[in-house]
Amino acid sequence: MNVVNVVQKFGMDDFLERSWELPSEVIEPLREHVNVGDDGWIIDAWPMMEQIAAIVQPWVTEEFDVASGAWFVESWSGPEQVQLPGHSL
User: Fold this and answer.
1) Nearest to 8 by CA among 24, 17, 22, 19
2) DSSP classification of residue 67
3) How does pLDDT run across 57-83, given as a tens digit for each residue?
């Protein structure tokens, strides 16, 4: 299982428009604002607040509009990526 912490931006139609993967170094600063498990993954989805935006902005290529309600932080999980011989990821 591959788990990553992400910032998500949703559109007016409530469909995911874009997401950004967050590095592990943001977890400790985020603990004060969101629920983070012992394994370092964000538990549940959290709406973007000014305090969270200040922490994650360096890894997101768009400016936040926290009042829009379109931005969230959470963890995603999926299957592990498998590297095939002779191919790079």
Assistant:
1) 19
2) G
3) 999 999 999 999 999 999 987 665 544
